[in-house]
């Protein structure tokens, strides 16, 4: 039986690992930051010992040979750490460290053909995609954070993908809360995706697959940024779903997510106000027993 392998490139704190473990035989988590790798190793010690999870503590390179490279760890927000040198005006926000590196092709050759590849590597997503395609690696499912249209162009022109979905990173924890997904063993399993996680992939992402032509219109309306483009060569784009219907459902999901967030904030504010009220243990002055001063009594 073929082993189903998921590659988590840019694993960060491992928020997506529980979901990936449900959807595969093996998860390969790649993270450059040694502190975060140690955290993942402690959090998922059992899964590592069972051989279901491998953690590669290295910088993932698009080309060249394995070896030590400079990597830039953000001093206050580790999710912004990156391989390309930051702009001179931002350099003081980063700490330059020397870390081991591996190419993406080396990692794939070691662990096997990917079923799904998640790419979330700050300012380096396009290079990894290009390296995969140049090596003849075309995963059935792939996603990449997309701050430029280059990601979509690579998926279409070099990857040959023709079916797409969009996941809005800012609303993942709201839109995909309390979901039921089908796990690797075929049983329905409840799951919620935490904030800053990449969310689901493949057919666990809401909506039908769109053709490249229709998806380009979605990107034009929604814009890029903290959004993941999902692509597949396994499923065909839906011919029964119009672009308008897709957009209406997509905007409806975002609207509901924002409404839930607003309700949560209101509840939190109300809870704070209740906690600020005097309790029975707080002495309250009895105004009926206050005796006026002599100077306050009229003659």
UniProtKB/TrEMBL annotation:
Residues in Methyltransferase FkbM domain copies: 8-130
One of the GO BP terms on file: methylation
Keyword terms: Methyltransferase, Transferase
Entry's Gene Ontology molecular function annotations: methyltransferase activity
One Pfam family cited in the UniProt record for this chain: Methyltransf_21
NCBIfam families registered for this protein in UniProt: fkbM_fam (TIGR01444)
Name of the protein described by the UniProt record: FkbM family methyltransferase
